[in-house]
Structure formats: C-alpha cells, structure tokens
Amino acid sequence: MASTKGDKPQEKGLDLAVKPNKSAMPETNTQEYATKGFDDTETDRANDAQAIWERGRKIQQEQEGKVPDNIYRGQAAYSTFRKINKEEVWSSGGGGIAKGPVRAATHYRATTMFDYKPDICKDYKDTGFCGFGDSCIFMHDRGDYKSGWQMEKEWQEKQLAEDKKKRDRDAAIEAGEDPESEPEEDDGLPWACFICRQDFKDPVATKCRHYFCRACAIERYAESTNCACCNEPTGGIFNTAKEIVGKLKKKQSKEASKEGER
User: Fold this and answer.
1) Is 211 exposed, middle or buried (0-12, 13-18, 19+ CB in 10 A)?
2) pLDDT tens digits, one per residue of 66-94
3) d(Cα 130, Cα 120) in Å, to the nearest integer?
4) What is the spatial distance between Cα 186 and Cα 209, in angstroms, rounded to a whole number?
5) Range name among 38-47, 56-65, 119-128, 145-154 with the lowest pLDDT average
6) In terms of pTM, does the model score above 0.85?
C-alpha cells in the first residue's frame, strides 16, 4: 500500500510510553504478600476449632430453658451446665472475655527460637565474623559441644556393646570355641564357586562381577556364553579375581599363624 505525501513511514518496534507517578510506595499491597498462602495451609475458618466451639455454644443458648429435643448434634454440641453470659462476646474477643479456642492471627506469623547457649556470640558462630570485634561481651567460639542427653545416649550404647561382647564371649566358651578369635568381616565376596560349590581354585571374575573357578568358567563357556549367575553374556572375558585372591591369601596366613602357635 503506497503512502500518501506527508505520511511518515511507520518503523517496526516497541511503542511504549510509561508515565511515572513519582511515588515511593509499591503499587501492590505488601501486607497481602506477607501472609500469602496462609489460607492454603490453615483450616477453613468455617470449620476450625473456634467456629465449631461457637456453633456449639449458640446451640446451647437456643436450647436453654427448653425441653431437650433428644437430637444428637455431635460432641462439639454437648451441653455444659456452666452458666454463659449472653452479652459476652465469643472467643473472637471484641471487648468481651475470650472463651474457648482462639483463632490464630492472619496478619503475621510468629517464629520462636530457644537459645540454649546465651553466652555464645551468634554472629561469630554462624559466620565467623562479629562487628564488635574484641569488644564483644559474648564468647567467640565456633565449636560444637555435645549436650548431656547426647553423652548419656553414647554411654548407654557403649554399655550395651560391652554387654553383648561379654555374652558372645561366654557363649563361645560354652561352645568350646576360642573366645579371642575375631569374627570374619562381611565384605560381600562369595566364599565358594557358584558352579562347583567348592573353595575357589584360581578364581576369575566376569564383566558382571560374578566369581568362578577358572576351570569351571571355561567349561561353562564351552556350553553357554552366558554367565552362570545372571545369564548375561560374558563375551569370553574372565579376569583374575584379585579380591578373592587377596581374601584367600589372608585366610591362609591366619591358618599358618595358628598352626605355628600350636
């Protein structure tokens, strides 16, 4: 479309004009954001403890002086024989005496902190820096100390471990075993070949970390190329099981030392 004479061609871009109001106050209500989401976590105001209590008291006032209608209205509407002044405002306050459960305020949230170490400088303990420097009246210490209940718990656990050790020693003596022998650690390694069910002889390991005797593994590979444990393909790779070899050497050295003592 051709433009007429005197018309300026329109340039593509943003055409936005903002007029400031020269006010330092934010346009949004900060009080709403301070307690935003309060109703999402709290009970509905129509069904909270205060509302239930107030409904029960109103029912009691309506039934006062009348013949009971024998209608069950729930535990919250149980009759109380304590005289209630009708002119007093309910637990919402408003100049009267607050009664029953009081609904929590929605315009602020309270956070409580118990200081069990009032002599420690909190700034220095948390950040390692204190603006008062050496003139701070509190102690600059970033160490952690155990409370009394923690030390008592550790002492009880230590006593239970010692009692268990004594019972195990007595049981070993009754069974005719050496009470000074240390139990073998559970390292997660097998103690026998999965194929022949005997002690390892020249142990090897597959890619899937299963252990066999070398002769058993080769004989199994001639029948099937899959692992005898998990049925995964081995690819004919059988590496020396260094973990099993070290375990066997350690066992042999212990047996040799026991025979030497005898």
Assistant:
1) buried
2) 877 888 888 877 877 766 665 554 444 44
3) 12
4) 17
5) 38-47
6) no
Mean pLDDT, to the nearest integer, of 203-214?
88
Q: Which of 112, 114, 131 has the alpha carbon at shortest distance from 123?
A: 131
CA 83 and chain centroid, separation: 49
Mean pLDDT, residues 139-153: 87
The residues with which 212 forms a beta bridge, in sequence order, are: 204
> Per DSSP, what are the bridge partners of residue 239?
205
Question: Which residue type, as a one-letter code, is found at position 34?
Answer: A
CA distance 51 to 163: 57
Going from the C-alpha of 170 to that of each of 126, 176, 185, 234, the distances in angstroms are 50, 10, 21, 48
* Residue 102 CB-density burial (10 A; 0-12 exposed, 13-18 middle, 19+ buried): middle
pLDDT of residue 143: 85
Pairwise CA distance, residues 64 & 74, whole Å: 17
Structure-block tokens of residue 74: 């729930």
pLDDT in tens, 87-115: 554 444 444 455 677 777 777 777 788 88
Give the pLDDT confidence score for residue 153 in this predicted structure: 92
The Cα-based distances of 215 to 219, 231, 235 in angstroms read 6, 18, 16
CA–CA gap between residue 56 and residue 89 (Å, rounded): 14
